[in-house]
Specification:
The protein has a domain of about 210 residues: 2-enoyl-CoA Hydratase, Chain A, domain 1. It is about 35% helix and about 20% strand. It has ten helices and 14 strands. A seven-stranded mixed beta sheet has the order 3-4-5-6-9-10-14, covered by helices on one side. It has a four-stranded antiparallel beta sheet with strand order 2-1-12-11, covered by helices on one side. A hairpin with a 5-residue loop joins strand 11 and strand 12.
Length: about 325
């Protein structure tokens, strides 16, 4: 009888321990593991950026298991996102957007003063600005954004090329400074009209396997030649550190156009093709999923596209309303 009582007591203790959820992972820990694992599975730049993702997990779990508030958990995920130094990585919560920025680390080289050099302005809105460089036959086209439907841009670019640029301009300046990117196909709509034969303009690859250095083979991105306008005159593309993502792809496209030169500052170096994920609490996060390189396999992330001719504005020139980058382009075209 005594032995039976001991067995019953042991069984009750076992049941009591089984009901104790103190050893189960907390809601924060479960969400963190999902967040960390998605990056671990997809993110392509750990080695390039020198990120020890395993150590980040270990340190984060120590904090989570010690007990943290919802605000502290948000800060933890935000800091982890920012540690990747990637403009395409972000965390969106009800309190705001957590996203890395490096724009203030470099000279602004803004295109604001370019209008002082223009005459016969035919177009100037939130997307495009087109005119002629004063006292010349050089066309100037600023593309302020690549956001929107590329189909809508097709007739606009066609009209500019056929009715304005090809008939009367001796050269063309394409200004994409401060263009943060968007839809890569918009730049393609213009580039294919200037190209007389198919050209490879960039390479891409994704993670493929459990290892952080397991990738697919490089895949070639090809720019076709569609309805070329027969333009053979010089083109200069103006760039600065505010050129990101799809704008950098456009610069790589223009590199394939004959008689074209890139002038200005290095582009921003941010290429990720991000995908979005949602945690159980509704927080959204974006992860870069693609490595992008030039045809000679120069990674664009953090490195940018280097111009053929480096020129920078100064605080003094900006205050004077001068644009030294544009002036250099005009000088080379005259």
């Amino acid at each position: 009888m005594k032995r039976l009582s001991v067995l019953l007591l042991t069984l009750l203790l076992f049941i009591s321990c089984s009901d104790d959820d103190s050893e189960l992972p907390s809601e924060f820990e479960v969400m963190f593991e999902e967040f960390w694992s998605d990056f671990d599975r997809l993110y392509p730049y750990f080695e390039i950026k020198g990120i020890d993702w395993d150590s980040a997990r270990t340190a984060s779990l120590v904090d989570i298991r010690a007990g943290i508030s919802g605000t502290e958990f948000e800060s933890l995920l935000a800091e982890l996102s920012l540690s990747l130094r990637d403009l395409h990585v972000s965390l969106q919560t009800p309190s705001g957007l957590h996203q890395y920025s490096k724009r203030d680390q470099f000279p602004a080289n803004l295109p604001d003063s370019a209008i002082n050099y223009l005459t016969d302005i035919k177009m100037d809105d939130d997307v495009l600005q087109f005119g002629t460089i004063e006292n010349s036959t050089i066309g100037y086209l600023r593309i302020k954004t690549f956001t929107g439907d590329h189909i809508a841009f097709d007739p606009i670019f066609q009209e500019l090329l056929e009715n304005e640029i090809v008939p009367s301009k001796s050269a063309l300046i394409l200004d994409v400074r401060e263009n943060g990117g968007g839809n890569e196909a918009i730049g393609g709509v213009l580039a294919v009209k200037l190209l007389d034969e198919e050209k490879e303009y960039k390479l891409t690859r994704r993670r493929d396997g459990a290892g952080r250095n397991d990738f697919t083979n490089w895949e070639s991105a090809v720019l076709p030649s569609l309805d070329p306008v027969g333009w053979t005159n010089p083109i200069i593309v103006l760039t600065n550190r505010g050129c990101y993502s799809s704008t950098e792809s456009f610069v790589l496209m223009m590199r394939q156009i004959p008689n074209t030169m890139i002038i200005g500052d290095i582009t921003g170096g941010a290429t990720g093709s991000p995908e979005e994920f949602i945690l159980d609490n509704g927080w959204a996060y974006r992860i870069s999923t693609v490595q992008t390189a030039s045809p000679d396999i120069r990674i664009i992330e953090d490195q940018g596209v280097v111009p053929d001719v480096f020129v920078s504005n100064t605080d003094e020139s900006y205050e004077q309303g001068r644009d030294l980058m544009l002036e250099r382009a005009i000088e080379l075209l005259n």
